[in-house]
């Protein structure tokens, strides 16, 4: 027997929000989260009782996050003054979102879906394309980059 949809939101909402934040950033994550659960609510009655609800929701979140990114890319962003050139950021940026956003797309998606969303690599590969081994490698490379960006306290003291 399937759980009531309200319970699905309570149980899986935080995971879906983490995935949305990792894929689209903190500003647009709430929109992607809302769109995910609106679409899920419409489709939930047809979902088989034995379905992996978390994987299903992360798949929907993946698609909605891509929609949010595409929609944002179509809108111009007004600025008061256009800079002559882009200046590199000064110093080390300690914001984790910036570090995740700087990862190549596939690495960022795998880190989000596997490490934040908790999906197995087979499911991640189905979402991003390729094999489970390729997803595992992309995730490993992404985590290695994040570890270099955020060394542990022991590494900083040596």
Helix content: 55-70%
User: Structural class of the helices, strands and pairings?
Assistant: mainly alpha
Q: Compute the separation of the termini in Å.
A: 55 Å
Q: Helical element count?
A: 8
Number of strands: 0
Task: Report the portion of residues in β strands.
Answer: under 5%
Write the layout of secondary structure elements.
Layout: H1 5-24, H2 29-43, H3 53-73, H4 96-102, H5 105-116, H6 121-128, H7 132-149, H8 153-157
Helix pairs in contact: 1-2, 1-3, 1-5, 2-3, 5-6, 5-7, 6-7
Your description of this structure?
- By secondary structure, this protein is mainly α.
- Helix content is 67%, strand content 0%.
- Helix 2 crosses helix 3 and helix 5 runs antiparallel to helix 6.
- The C terminus is likely disordered.
Keywords for this entry:
0% strand, mainly alpha, 158 residues, disordered C terminus
What's the short version?
By secondary structure, the chain is an all-alpha fold.
């Amino acid at each position: 027997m399937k759980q009531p949809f309200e319970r699905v939101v309570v149980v899986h909402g935080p995971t879906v929000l983490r995935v949305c934040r990792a894929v689209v950033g903190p500003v647009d994550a709430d929109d992607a989260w809302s769109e995910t659960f609106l679409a899920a609510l419409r489709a939930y009655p047809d979902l088989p009782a034995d379905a992996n609800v978390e994987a299903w929701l992360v798949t929907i979140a993946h698609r909605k996050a891509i929609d949010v990114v595409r929609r944002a890319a179509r809108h111009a962003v007004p600025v008061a003054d256009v800079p002559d050139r882009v200046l590199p950021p000064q110093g080390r940026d300690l914001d984790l979102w910036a570090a995740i956003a700087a990862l190549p797309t596939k690495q960022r998606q795998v880190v989000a879906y596997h490490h934040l969303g908790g999906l197995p690599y087979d499911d991640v590969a189905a979402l991003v394309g390729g094999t489970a081994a390729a997803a595992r490698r992309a995730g490993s490379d992404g985590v290695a980059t994040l570890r270099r960006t955020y060394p542990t306290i022991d590494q900083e003291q040596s």
